[in-house]
């Protein structure tokens, strides 16, 4: 399979690098500045699962090179609209589009740009960032990529994709409930990023405070209430499972949103917490979620 990785940042660079390391045919679609950096230094991964330094094949928008079998979209949500038009030359009728963005509303934008039949469901669990040299630093034991057909079918194409994704220095898993998995991740990442960013701390010190566990749980419950306006099937068992995951995180783990804020970078306030507030018909009972969103929007205003 020919893979096009859209973005060679912390997430796209990591998973694309691991696929190339495994021997897959991988090309990165990047902006000119990142392209120059990769040409000069290669793709460098520092990881608890093994380091890698790889010469990589790149394209910049407009260069010929498609179509590809799989296009993995691994950009931040606020960059998505800017790359959709760039993807047209690389997406053919049989191309699978696999997004690894947080949240859910990006599916609507991808469906409109291509077709619902081409767009798979996908998500990842990984703690990773780019350092100031453009190198990928990956910290956590989890480096999981989960994917599947949105209708739950075990189709021949996702079986082929599973074969291509497995066997390297990453964990790839096919799911027949990928939309449920995406909602579960949405609840997790909105709570985890919200509380760690608001408290400007890794998760451990937050949960160790007198009220930290309770405040985190109330934030999760508000997020779940908001999300149920869009997806009523989000049952209490799922929410309880998300909370157990949060409580079991390594104490030093930080959300990527907090790491972005530490670098004075943009954050996904609208795509994550803002969209949750939009889902809720009555925002009056969501004070913690409103507080998180207000804090993030204030951060965005102050960084301009």
UniProtKB/TrEMBL annotation:
Reactions performed catalytically: (R)-pantoate + NADP(+) = 2-dehydropantoate + NADPH + H(+)
Keywords, ordered alphabetically: NADP, Oxidoreductase, Pantothenate biosynthesis
GO CC, any one term: cytoplasm
Keyword presence, S-adenosyl-L-methionine: no
Ketopantoate reductase C-terminal domain location: 178-300
Biochemical pathway: Cofactor biosynthesis; (R)-pantothenate biosynthesis; (R)-pantoate from 3-methyl-2-oxobutanoate: step 2/2
Top-level class of the enzyme under EC nomenclature: oxidoreductase
Domain Ketopantoate reductase N-terminal per the UniProt entry, residue ranges: 4-151
UniProt-listed Enzyme Commission number(s): 1.1.1.169
GO BP terms, alphabetized: pantothenate biosynthetic process
Keyword Protein biosynthesis set for record: no
Highest taxon above the source species: Bacteria
Pfam families referenced in this protein's UniProt entry, alphabetically: ApbA, ApbA_C
Role according to the record: Catalyzes the NADPH-dependent reduction of ketopantoate into pantoic acid.
Family: Belongs to the ketopantoate reductase family.
PANTHER family: 2-DEHYDROPANTOATE 2-REDUCTASE, PROBABLE 2-DEHYDROPANTOATE 2-REDUCTASE
Name this protein carries in UniProt: 2-dehydropantoate 2-reductase
Source species: Melghirimyces thermohalophilus
Upper lineage: Bacteria, Bacillati, Bacillota, Bacilli, Bacillales
């Amino acid at each position: 399979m020919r893979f096009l990785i859209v973005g060679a940042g912390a997430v796209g660079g990591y998973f694309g690098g691991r696929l190339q390391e495994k021997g897959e045919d991988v090309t990165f679609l990047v902006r000119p500045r990142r392209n120059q950096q990769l040409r000069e230094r290669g793709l460098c991964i520092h990881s608890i699962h093994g380091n890698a330094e790889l010469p990589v094949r790149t394209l910049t928008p407009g260069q010929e090179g498609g179509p590809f079998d799989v296009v993995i979209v691994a950009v931040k949500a606020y960059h998505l609209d800017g790359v959709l038009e760039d993807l047209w030359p690389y997406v053919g009728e049989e191309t699978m589009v696999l997004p690894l963005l947080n949240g859910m509303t990006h599916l609507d934008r991808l469906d409109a740009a291509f077709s619902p039949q081409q767009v798979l469901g996908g998500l990842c669990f990984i703690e990773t960032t780019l350092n100031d040299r453009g190198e990928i630093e990956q910290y956590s034991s989890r480096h999981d990529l989960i994917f599947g057909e949105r209708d739950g079918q075990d189709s021949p194409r996702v079986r082929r994709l599973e074969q291509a994704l497995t066997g390297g220095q990453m964990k790839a898993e096919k799911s027949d409930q990928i939309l449920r998995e995406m909602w579960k991740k949405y609840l997790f990442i909105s709570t985890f990023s919200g509380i760690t960013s608001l408290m400007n701390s890794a998760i451990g010190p937050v949960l160790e405070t007198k009220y930290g566990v309770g405040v985190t749980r109330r934030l999760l419950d508000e997020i779940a209430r908001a999300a149920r306006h869009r997806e009523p099937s989000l049952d209490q068992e799922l929410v309880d499972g998300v909370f157990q995951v949060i409580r079991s995180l390594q104490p030093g783990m930080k959300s990527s949103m907090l790491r972005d804020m530490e670098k004075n970078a943009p954050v996904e306030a609208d795509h994550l917490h803002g969209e949750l507030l939009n889902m809720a018909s009555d925002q009056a009972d969501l004070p913690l979620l409103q507080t998180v969103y207000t804090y993030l929007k204030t951060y965005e205003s102050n960084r301009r």
